[in-house]
């Protein structure tokens, strides 16, 4: 009886927004779904309005898929990316979206911090072609300072991705004066170099485009005096990853 009820009940979740022609979250042109809710509190978050899991809007998977279907012709060399917020806060919802995307023959990418319940994430990974794993720092104390949560779950998640040989891109946000200590970057590069499933590393320069959202939410933005890194600073960090034999840009 339970099975019948589950089959008939639409799977719903909460999203913040969608972007129909994204080009920065995975290969090619992508339909990007921003889910609502995130357990991290990153100092540089440019989507602080994605954090509250009760905010955003409730949608069914079918409603989302009817939007995806409209853009399918444009997504042939790209696909669908689910980001947030933290998509893995809603594993059942996200797994069902990605499963339906695979039914349409679309490539699927999952952008996550890896701060998740591994068991719950496994059903999502079954329908994920590429993981974009954001590792926000490598020194445990610094990771906690940047995100307000511990590092270890993300490392466990990263090692699991390697064990199942899931294609993965690592993303690291370079914030001058915060995430740029050499031992932090080098430690991360050395760790990532042990993961044979990692295809590339993306060094993302810190920017302040989301600062106005912090103001709108009445939250103190602690990085207001921090400037984005120079091209030279970015190049230096990219080189640290390359020195470990990684493809980085
Ligand atoms: S993981 Fe992303 S959405 Fe969550 S707080 Fe950090 S930057 Fe913001």
Automatic annotation (TrEMBL):
SUPFAM superfamilies: Radical SAM enzymes (SSF102114)
E.C. number: 1.97.1.4
Keyword Signal applies: no
Keywords, comma-separated and alphabetical: 4Fe-4S, Cytoplasm, Iron, Iron-sulfur, Lyase, Metal-binding, Oxidoreductase, Pyruvate, S-adenosyl-L-methionine
Free-text comment on the cofactor: Binds 1 [4Fe-4S] cluster. The cluster is coordinated with 3 cysteines and an exchangeable S-adenosyl-L-methionine.
Superkingdom: Bacteria
Pfam families xrefs: Radical_SAM (PF04055)
Catalytic activity: glycyl-[formate C-acetyltransferase] + reduced [flavodoxin] + S-adenosyl-L-methionine = glycin-2-yl radical-[formate C-acetyltransferase] + semiquinone [flavodoxin] + 5'-deoxyadenosine + L-methionine + H(+)
Cofactors, names only: [4Fe-4S] cluster
PROSITE patterns, per database record: RADICAL_ACTIVATING, RADICAL_SAM
Molecular function, one GO term: lyase activity
Ranges for domain Radical SAM core: 24-247
InterPro entries: Aldolase_TIM, Organic_radical-activating, Organic_radical_activase, PFL1_activating, Radical_activat_CS, rSAM, rSAM_sf
Subcellular localization, as worded in the UniProt entry: Cytoplasm
Function: Activation of pyruvate formate-lyase under anaerobic conditions by generation of an organic free radical, using S-adenosylmethionine and reduced flavodoxin as cosubstrates to produce 5'-deoxy-adenosine.
Family assignment from sequence similarity: Belongs to the organic radical-activating enzymes family.
Protein name: Pyruvate formate-lyase-activating enzyme
Organism: Thermostichus vulcanus str. 'Rupite'
């Amino acid at each position: 009886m339970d099975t019948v009820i589950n089959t008939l009940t639409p799977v719903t979740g909460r999203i913040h927004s969608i972007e129909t022609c994204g080009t920065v979250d995975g290969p090619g042109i992508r339909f990007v779904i921003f889910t609502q809710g995130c357990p991290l509190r990153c100092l540089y978050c440019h989507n602080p309005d994605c954090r509250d899991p009760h905010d955003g809007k409730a949608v069914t998977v079918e409603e989302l898929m009817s939007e995806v279907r409209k853009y399918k012709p444009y997504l042939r060399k790209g696909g669908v990316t689910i980001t947030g917020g933290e998509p893995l806060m809603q594993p059942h919802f996200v797994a069902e979206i990605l499963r339906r995307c695979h039914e349409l023959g679309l490539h699927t990418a999952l952008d996550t911090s890896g701060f998740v319940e591994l068991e719950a994430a496994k059903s999502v990974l079954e329908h994920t072609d590429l993981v974009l794993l954001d590792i926000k720092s490598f020194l445990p104390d610094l990771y906690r300072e940047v995100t307000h949560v511990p590092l270890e779950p993300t490392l466990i998640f990263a090692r699991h991705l390697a064990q199942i040989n899931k294609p993965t891109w690592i993303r690291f946000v370079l914030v001058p004066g915060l995430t740029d200590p050499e031992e932090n970057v080098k430690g991360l590069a050395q760790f990532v170099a042990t993961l044979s499933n990692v295809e590339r590393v993306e060094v993302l320069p810190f920017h302040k485009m989301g600062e106005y959202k912090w103001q709108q939410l009445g939250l103190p933005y602690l990085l207001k005096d921090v400037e984005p890194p120079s091209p030279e600073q970015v190049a230096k960090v990219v080189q640290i990853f390359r020195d470990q034999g990684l493809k980085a840009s």
